[in-house]
Amino acid sequence: MSRIRVIGGGLAGPEAALVAARMGVEVDLYEMRPVRSTPAHQTADFGELVCSNSLKSESENSAPWLLKQELRRAGSPLLACADASAVPAGHALAVDRVEFSRQITEALEREPRIHVHREEVTRLGPEDGITIVASGPLTSSALSEEIARLTGSSHLAFYDSISPIVEADSINMDRVYFAARWDKGTADYINCPFTKEEYDAFYDALVSAETVQEKAWEKLCYFEGCLPIEELARRGRDTLRFGPMKPVGLRDPRTGKTPYAVVQLRCENLRADSYNLVGFQNHLKYGEQARVLRMIPGLEGARFLRYGQIHRNTYINAPRVLMETLNLREYPNIYFAGQISGVEGYTESIASGFLAGLYAAHAALGARPVPVPRATALGALVHYITHADPENFQPANITFDLLVPLEEKLRKEIRNKKERHRVQCERALAAFAQWWQTAVNPAVHSF
Fold it and tell me: Among 56, 207, 215, 396, which residue has the least CB neighbours within 10 Å?
């Protein structure tokens, strides 16, 4: 009987399990929560989102849109769950995180080939059969040591941070307004506008606020794409105004003017009873967060359901150890997916889980997998994590920089960046369609 083991109940693990099961493979899915928790998770739910609730842009011909389109066309189980639990978020795909987890759990429970085990896995080896490690950035120390033993190299680690969440009815709606940047999509974001004086006072309070003390054994090495706001602020007084507090495209309909700076709040669930502060991950002490963040116009009386925090994210040096089919060179029966494999972001984690599930299922069925071509968004992501400079490897989101560039002649002919992106997306989707026709065995594929 064809059987594989999947470790991790976040995003990549359930995606891999569902993909493999729907191809006719028996799957043992392991999740250590609630037997053993992590510093960031609050529940034992499958697919719990510990940071933002956004799967990024749905704007046509953007790189995040392209990755989601490829996954949708492949029948990604978790993208279907995300679409079914979406909340208003302008031109982004954001989900009700509780409903999203419920949808994933129901999908797993409906699949008779998936067998869930609530226990910690601490051993990996050839004798354990085909295994997908999707244990996430908060992999337990015991499993981390086992992975380090197998890969023969130390893990790299960066520190990721979580944005605060406030109760909706504690927001002073007289001081804020609804709008989406450049009026894209619907006006689903609450915008907290600053005058220059308000911004200067907020900035001074932020850079002088007390942060959580670094422990002796820690070496804080933040992921550049997810810097705490206080770290960004220390790079210059206007850094936040060109980052998470940029006001461009957010004209205040009450005044007809663009504010000096803006903090955006995004809906957390379908009930719209809570909002997160977009891009406001931080490493401040809780008391300091309450003091400083209540200086944001409209949040003077904010009640915080969750403060920002920091946690350790672990990932392997994928360019050194992984093949393009996401399995270890030295131990080809062991696959990696999700953030531990070196991708960054929710959709990217789902994407790597999809591919790992596909490839591992083929191996279990005695078939040779067809690697996804680099010309696709899926392939570009895999190509990066398996071919980047191992000496300076950093996790990556999907961007146009990772996609196959247009030929120089065509780049000169197409001056408009949006049009160049449209052509890149068109080519990627065509390459995906051609690959997908041969990527699975029609006899067992049941998406």
Answer: 215
